Amino acid sequence: MQVPLLDLKAQYQQIKAEVRTRMDEICESQQFILGPQVALMEEAVAQYCQAPHAVGVSSGSDALIIALMAAGIGPGHRVVTTPYTFFATAGAIARVGALPVFVDVEVDTYNLDPAQFAAVMAQMSPGERETVKAVIPVHLYGQCAEMDPILETSRQYNLTVIEDAAQAIGAEYKGRRAGSMGDFGCFSFFPSKNLGAFGDGGLVTCPTQAMDQRLRLLRMHGMEPKYYHHAIGGNFRLDALQAAIVAVKLPYLDGWSQARQKNAALYRRLFQEAGLAGRIGLPVAKQNRHIYNQFVIRVPKERDALRKYLADQQIGSEVYYPVPLHRQACFAYLGYQAGDFPVSEQAAAETLALPVYPELKADQLAFVVEKIGEFLNNG
Ligand SMILES: *Cc1c(COP(=O)(O)O)cnc(C)c1O
Fold it and tell me: Residue 152: exposed, middle, or buried by beta-carbon count in 10 A (0-12, 13-18, 19+)?
């Protein structure tokens, strides 16, 4: 039995007719950049995310960059984030000329540790603390970071809060949606995210009309009117085809998220029943709406051997992420050492993402659990 990590073909069959119709309309209109399709999608996603405004952009990575630009962050500034995330989170900080300041994650959720964040801010010299302008909590794997204490520390030091919600569209923290709690929410429509386009795309949510306008200006090279430039932005535009696909998929998103939650619950039950729950770490769901962009287990010591064993059985899995960002070659200039963020380093060595996509069949999922049991019991 083959069990891929993700199978987008099954999802496409469900929406094919609608997508093809909308694509045909756009081809006939020959209006490809921004325009009414993007505006319609922005409105629908803003509403879904319980955010007053949303601006479609070219990718999740660019969503982070444009949010930092809109917040006025650049050379001489520092931005706090976690070292256990996709590269783009910290890459965006460096791209605008600021310095990433890493703070370790919580051992159970892999999200920014609010206590360590507060401690790092409190222990900085006043001069250094002055230069910290923002924090980017990441809602990793589809579960929101512990936002209340993060927001409290941010208010105390007057920091801009940019939520990296690329993996968490529709996730909730105490009834509040990802991307609606900070000053900006950054989303990705990369095909493997829960709401994926047919290429690159992204979106930034924000609470104020003024920031919405600022984002729109920066998205088009700071240009208003044509060929008069007020700020140095970039080409962060989203195209109509991607926006239309996102809009077609959005009404299905809650059903897909529920199917992922159902799969996660089934994994928990089957791992329990097989007596494996004590031998691997299961994801800890603390917040009230986890959307399981990934279902990530912990496998002390033999993670890589298990991954290979599963691959040999045609079961897909992935390591998100094998090298924490403070250990990446390109960030050597930041001066961090091995051992600086032990929780992230251990997570990088032990975590393994299993297939959890909505169309996954119960027998496929049971096969994954069975093979993991085989490996752990015979290995
Ligand atoms: C996917 C992702 C991004 C970047 O999104 P792209 O659309 O691929 O540029 C940023 N942050 C996190 C946490 C992500 O998972």
Answer: exposed
Closest CA to 184 of 208, 148, 216, 167: 208
Cβ contact 190:30 at 8 Å: no
Element (H, E) at 328: none
Considering only CA atoms, which of 67, 89, 268 is closest in space to residue 168?
89
- How confident is the model over 319-340, as pLDDT tens digits? 999 999 999 999 999 999 999 9
Crossing angle between the packed helical segments 240-249 and 8-29, to the nearest 10 degrees: 130
79 — pLDDT class (breaks 50, 70, 90): very high
pLDDT band at residue 286 using 50, 70 and 90 as cut-offs: confident
Query: Maximum CA pair distance of the chain?
Result: 69
Query: 85 CB under 6 A from ligand 1?
Result: yes
E strand or H helix that includes residue 354: strand 351-354
**Residue 164 CB–ligand 1 contact under 6 Å:** yes
Sorted by where each starts, the structural domains of the chain and their CATH numbers stand as 8-251 (3.40.640.10), 253-378 (3.90.1150.10)
Q: Return the structure tokens found at 70.
A: 């809109």
Q: Whose CA is nearest to atom 3 of ligand 1?
A: 60
Atom number of ligand 1 nearest to Cα 188: 7
> Tens digit of pLDDT for each residue in 84-96?
999 999 999 999 9
Q: Is the pTM of this model over 0.85?
A: yes
